[in-house]
Specification:
Blueprint (H helix, E strand, L loop, with lengths): L2 H22 L5 H13 L4 H7 L2 H16 L5 H17 L4 H14 L4 H29 L25 H21 L4 H15 L5 H16 L2 H4 L2 H20 L4 H19 L7 H22 L1
Helix pairs in contact: 1-2, 1-4, 1-10, 2-10, 4-5, 4-10, 5-7, 6-7, 6-9, 8-9, 8-10, 8-14, 9-10, 12-13, 12-14, 13-14
Amino acid sequence: MTIAMQAILPALTAMLVFIAGWRMCPPQNAMAGGVGAFLLFVLHPAFLSGIRDSSPWDAFFVMFFVCAWLAMEHWSLFMRSWVLAGVFAFGVWVGSSFVFWGIVAMVPWVVFNRRPLAAAGSLLTVFLGGFVIYGVTWGAASFCIRNLGHPIFIQWIRWGTLKMPPGVSLPWCLLALGAVAERFQDMMKNRRADVATFTAMLLVVTALFGSTVLGLAMIALAAPLIMRLLAKREFLFHRGVRIGAGVTFGLSLGLMILFRQDASLATGISIFAVMLVTRRFYDSSRLPWPLAGESACAGAFLAESLASLLR
């Protein structure tokens, strides 16, 4: 892959992350959701290492698929399925393992859809239609390009224990876990699934079974989900949230100077300490535990991002 392509693909992925954050959040908080998702993506401590160690095509393809689905959310199921099949075929062309994990993550969307049979037909259309489109385009291209060959798929499954890639951010993981839990709880409560639910399930499946080279794609998937969780009036305009995030930011920076080699330990101590102190000044009715935890994680993440940039 050329150097120019290595720079262009992450930039395009960042733009798609902004669009996904914009579309997933309520209209009144759409700008905050888009900008926040963009910053969560580019400021992640593992962003630069992810560009070097991961395939930029994976992150670009998965966000292209999510954004295409978000853009066509109100289209007819038939048209949406065939357009997504075309995007799926693009994923096969670039050899992304997300063509497999994406289909697995669509299963909960089918089960909790208000029209399960139609949703199952859509899943089959995306899967089978994508391979048909790929086969037709590959056959046509093979007449023009000699020795075209088939795309080499990267490792699809990582069996064994969960092995986190280096550079993982503890506050980012906690925020992503909270965002996934919120989507899962909403799916079970309302018996409905949408694009955000699909994104959350795809993130879970990839984290548990996907290859470690998919780190950049996981960061891109989690960013709009986290901003969907944070971009709400209670978080954006609560004085206690701003104070908690600011205190955690300062404490995390101080502890990271003390624990130079372990940012996770510094941010973990900061989050725990700030949440305990928060309970001293705010009761649960004024600042609920989830909101206090979100503010502490956000402050710790910003501190860890700043520390990684200054190294």
